[in-house]
């Protein structure tokens, strides 16, 4: 097999006028220009082959040959061109039958990456799928643009599997309900599933409701897109819900201003958003008012923003009642702003969780200033904050950090919480039975152990001593134990003890080794020492996850 190429000596004509569709197709994927005359001769050869040799109707064959540029370029690479492109192509096609579904699907408006997964596995010739051709021709004769039919096939292949005469009856059934042929021809491109079963009653009801609100078919067509999937049942539920909410009189204005609520894949999100707000106690009239003030944003993004705020409030440990008050009072504000990450906000605002909760409750409007892409400034130091700073500084000096400004600055970054809270957490470890000097050394080695609540520290010490049976002095050698989750500690020790009972683990392995190893190392050094180890490990993980 040779390949088509352009000799370097040739000087192909360059057109200064705006390129036509044909001239745009004269370029191969490698950027090499295929002369227009070559492309036209290749199209003619393909047309003759499809119509004269393969007996495909002339109109269909012509559409395939003229509207499958990718396929033609691929074909030209396989053909050894000897003087006459048309004859060379015809000779090649005589002995090398093509997969006719490729130029067919491409001529219907699909790209190779779209139609390749749709190619029949055991068929090469269009005549072998008579139902496909029959239903394709029904759509063409009904007025559907040929280059849009590919979208119908991609979204609802069942349309092309109807028996002879069935598809036309379905189209006529919609006409009998008062829909024009041109409107149906457009709608089935956007929503081909209306042709897969019986008449889509919800689709008809949506049209009736929109017509009743003053929206004609032209307006509906204008706001539909081939890129979307339309669930008419869901759209009907949204319209019905809006009426039941009591905004019937304003519904036309709402849809006119925000057609996305219905048509941009947002219908399901609208219902989810309403359910979410109702759960927090927002009254129906307030929800109705919110939609009437809805911002220029997709409902899916609006709902995601509110959920993002909800998760943020949870992460800073705000009380549920307070979260509910903010969600119910400021839904538009929350839905219009894409909040930064919690960790970023705590850092940028230079504030702890308790103070941040209090600040938000007192200044909820400030939330709108913390969105993605905005510069967030630290909160002003409060009187309470000044006192906390003094207590923190005293705590750090007592720990032995000295009065070196750089050391103190580093300490302020590492330790989270108020000064009084840090001292309280420190005292919790001392009161468990350790010497104050030993605890000071522990904190200097692993400062993060104080970034936990007093209750959590007490719980972890109790588990270490009373549940796992280790002496309290183990904390002096391995203070980082307090930084690991109780689930990790219990899981690792349960696995280690099982392996030790099976004689497959060193009996004197240090607690720090068992806990601090990464999962990968723990698996290779311990779990995989026994044939049943991996299964026992998975079973224990499942058990501890359930317990959690």
UniProtKB/TrEMBL annotation:
A single MF term (Gene Ontology): nucleic acid binding
UniProt KW keywords: Transcription, Transcription regulation, Transcription termination, Transit peptide
Keyword field contains Transcription regulation: yes
One Pfam family per UniProt: mTERF
Family matches, as SMART domains: Mterf
Transit peptide is among the record's keywords: yes
InterPro entries attached to this UniProt entry: MTERF, MTERF_sf
Protein family membership: Belongs to the mTERF family.
Protein name from the UniProt record: Transcription termination factor MTEF18, mitochondrial-like
